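Table S2 (continued). Query chain:
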Amino acid sequence: MNTSDPKKVKALKPGDTIGIVAPASQVDREIFLRGVSEIETLGYKVQYSDLLFSNHYYFAGTHSQRAENFMEFFTNPKIKAVFCARGGYGSQYLLDLLDTNKLKANPKIFLGYSDVTTLLQYLENQCDMVCFHGPMVSREFASGEPYYLKESLQDCLTRTSPGAQLHLPQTETLMPGRVRGRLTGGCLSLLTACLGTPYELCSINKILFLEDVNTKPYQLDRMLMQLKLAGKLEEIQGLIFGEMLSCGDSSKSFTLQEIIYNVVHQLDIPVWYGLPSGHTSGKGLTLPFGVEIQMDTSEKWLKIEESAVIE
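Corresponding output:
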């Protein structure tokens, strides 16, 4: 596993071609095409293979087909970024089929979340590449801008200077403090699923972002404890939780925030809850993994301290 700072990728420019891959679950053509239209309104061209609509059990084609399509789009110099159609399940099958050296030689923007967390971690740690936790074609792009923040997306993928300071008053402070570090993370259930493999989370000296969807409080508790017992929370600089969409239980006398606090309060680091990225009810942020950010959980702001992309 590479422990050096990930390398930045080239910025998107108007008219660039974005390749779309489906590394996990099956894709609905009609919904997908709505997402394609939204990306085109942003000023980009789109390229995809009809293999995207293949069906193999519950996957978007066989594992080898999905891996080959992934490699083809990453190594194609005409394609300047790779976006994911959707998550679901199946990205783990690609890991042993990808060519790490070829990917490292062809770095480019890669965008997705949920099951795609597995590939974000792979690119960041095995391929030494900055990558992006953000909207997907058959999800947020298909639903339109109310479900993703265009300014956040464009800032991350096109801006070659440090990002703006984001004030997020709707978030909650679980443990106060200000900290700076490199951001990493993704969907909690996928991060725990990769523990004990060559592709597990590398969290030392990082600010760790965790989010999930439709997870019961005890399940969240169990996964956090698994990360903690695996040593993945020992040397982190700060901890950010997402919106945790549909993860609470209104019938209980305790909150999800209390469950989280009980697991992490001894870490003595800033802990923040409710940052909207990934599974959200709307207006999701794009987050750059592998770059320096600063956050203040008391004043509820986050600043991307360096650009995630270069000219």
